[in-house]
Amino acid sequence: MPRSSTARKQRRSFSLSAASIRYIELVRREKHADSASAALEQIIEDNKLQRRRRALEDAVSTYYDSLSDAEQQEQREWGYFAESEFPRH
To answer: Is the distance from CB of 42 to CB of 27 less than 8 angstroms?
Structure first.
């Protein structure tokens, strides 16, 4: 993970379960992280990405759920048109 020259790390102390420590060590090995701290940073970044994806999916679902029946039909027709423009294999 690239380091920003303006980002400063802060030392913190946490008490974690043995299962959580094992998980951090597993991630450290899988991601070839230099330390448990780096692995924990990766876990947090992965979680943040998942949350952003979920928020985007929820926003898209909310949008499509808000469409009237006529708007939904129009979207389906555009979808059929788009599919017909691509060759089938």
So the answer is: yes
